[in-house]
Design goal:
Layout: H1 2-21, H2 23-42, H3 46-67, H4 69-83, E1 88-89, E2 98-99, H5 100-117, H6 128-141, H7 150-174, H8 178-205, H9 238-258, H10 262-282, H11 285-298, H12 303-322, H13 324-327, H14 331-336, H15 347-359, H16 370-373, H17 392-425, H18 437-456, H19 462-475, H20 485-499
Helix pairs in contact: 3-4, 3-5, 4-5, 4-8, 5-7, 6-7, 6-17, 7-19, 8-9, 8-10, 8-19, 9-10, 9-11, 9-18, 9-19, 11-18, 15-17, 17-18, 18-19
Length: 507
């Protein structure tokens, strides 16, 4: 009997040994099976193919987040412009489909909470900025009952507002040292370089790639007045290209000064050349002026950048002087001076929007009402409704009133105030944060581009606002605790005690 029991006990070991011997064969069988099944699914209807690819991408993203949540944030910023509308898992009637960002954001949050529960991750204490994010989201969603389409307005708030503002929270908690910060900023430089290269490709060939799902290339406006090329692929509009490029160009300059390796410097010089040329090809005056103003401001606070800024100004002035004959009367000159008196036809739209807000200043009209009611509030004598308000701040005012505008302005202003205090705090001898005063100027540049862009248009691409909000969280949000007087004093004392040598007779 003992012999039989012993034999049964040895069976699992024998099976394990056998499986180990044929592990290569089993791996081949599994690979063939998975490949055959995947090939069969991909040869089916287009809906099935898209679903299978979406599931695979979501699984890969899960593995990336499980490796390190910060990598999930980098993947989100890098790939949202490419695959956001194509990666989609249906969730049934009445429930928004699970897109790339709609999965990434909750999954990163849940995984961070899980790590926090077992003390493997430590959250930053909640600040007024995070409170402003929640209040803005709640206030905007409260306008859904007033909206033309309540259900779609809730999705719009999550996609266009919450999913961009929450980048501040993720960057603030996931960026924990200088290496993490540089990884995030370099990801943005790579995105800017790729966007610039694509802009040059589309402008030179006329081929439109990376269109959002559902957009038909034959029904898209592809030219400005005067015959200049309008960029429509990837970021969906020249203004979006301009804002992304104007935000990432200063970051590339920052790495050019901070980096030491020759290959990296060569890449950055190429990236800057591509992005500057692509920014010109956008013919977006707001981005041009915004970048010039931001670079002019930061050169006062960034000594290393001052010399190259002067060189850029001299080269730009000489180039304009040398090519003035070709510029004057050209399509570019016509575009630059086109309808500057009324902001390219935006003034009547703004007047109608302001009048609508004054009629309902507290709660607003709800999403989609401007397109239905703006004709009654025009001051130019016409009564046709406008299709777009062309101002991000007025858009919030008309849609949600002061209830939505006030917390959103707080979300923008609070990090700005903190950044000014941090700039002077970082210049102190006892500063031990992982950013320098020069780094904070990158946030100022991003904020300037954000404000200028919002003043002349409504963002329809989430990545445009994701970048500046993530920069704010990574640079300012990560160091807000240095501005707390009591804790800051304790931290400095603790740091000084640790730096003192231990007495020899200490027990």
């Amino acid at each position: 009997m003992a012999f039989v029991i012993q034999r049964f006990k040895s069976i699992p070991r024998q099976i394990e040994a056998t499986l180990f011997k044929i592990r290569a064969f089993l791996a081949a069988i599994i690979a063939i099976g998975l490949g055959s099944g995947l090939g069969y699914l991909l040869s089916g209807p287009q809906e099935t193919v898209e679903l299978v690819i979406s599931i695979l991408v979501i699984l890969i993203l899960m593995l990336i987040v499980l490796k390190k949540p910060l990598y999930g944030l980098l993947a989100l910023i890098l790939f949202v412009p490419l695959i956001e509308t194509w990666i989609e898992i249906p969730m049934g009637a009445g429930i928004p489909d699970l897109s790339f960002s709609r999965f990434a954001i909750p999954f990163m949050a849940v995984f961070m909470l899980a790590q926090g529960a077992i003390n493997k991750f430590r959250f930053q204490s909640i600040s007024l900025v995070e409170v402003a994010i929640l209040l803005t989201t709640i206030a905007m969603m409260s306008a859904a009952p007033l909206s033309a389409n309540p259900s779609s307005s809730i999705q719009e708030v999550f996609t266009r507002n919450f999913s961009t503002m929450v980048m501040y929270f993720f960057a603030r908690n996931l960026v924990q040292n200088k290496r993490d910060l540089h990884m995030l900023l370099m990801t943005m430089v790579i995105l800017g370089f790729f966007s610039g290269a694509y802009a040059i490709y589309e402008s030179s060939t006329g081929h439109i790639l990376f269109l959002s799902k559902g957009r038909a290339g034959g029904h898209i406006r592809t030219e400005y007045n005067g015959g200049l090329q309008l960029l429509v692929g990837l970021l969906e509009g020249s203004p979006n290209f301009g804002r992304v490029l104007a935000t990432t160009i200063p970051i590339a300059f920052y790495f050019l000064f901070e980096g030491k390796g020759v290959p990296r410097k060569v890449f950055l010089v190429v990236a800057l050349a591509v992005q500057f040329y692509a920014l010109f090809l956008t013919y977006n005056r707001t981005s041009w002026y915004g970048l010039m103003i931001s670079l002019t401001i930061i050169q006062f606070f960034y000594p290393q950048f001052r010399k190259i800024y002067i060189v850029l100004v001299l080269l730009g002035g000489l180039s304009l002087w040398a090519t003035w004959d070709r510029y004057e009367g050209s399509a570019v000159e016509q575009r630059t001076n086109y309808k500057t008196d009324d902001f390219n036809g935006r003034t009547p739209r703004w007047e109608a929007g302001l009048n609508m807000w004054q009629a309902k200043p507290i709660r607003g009209w709800g999403f989609g009402r401007y397109e239905q009611e703006s004709g009654r509030f025009r001051e130019d004598g016409f009564r046709k409704n406008f299709e777009a308000i062309e101002n991000g701040f007025l858009d919030i005012m008309v849609n949600t009133g002061l209830i939505g505008l006030v917390p959103y302005l707080l979300f923008l202003i609070l990090p700005l105030v903190s950044s000014i205090r941090l700039f002077f705090r970082a210049r102190a001898p006892n500063w031990d944060g992982f950013i320098k005063p020069d780094t904070i100027t990158m946030y100022w540049c991003a904020l300037i581009i954000l404000v200028f862009g919002s003043y002349t248009g409504v963002t329809n691409k989430t990545i445009v606002n994701m970048i500046p909000f993530a920069i704010a969280g990574a640079i300012v949000g990560t160091h807000q605790h240095y501005l707390r007087p009591v804790k800051s004093a304790k931290r400095v004392v603790s740091h000084n005690l640790q730096a003192q040598p231990t007495p020899r007779n200490a027990s």
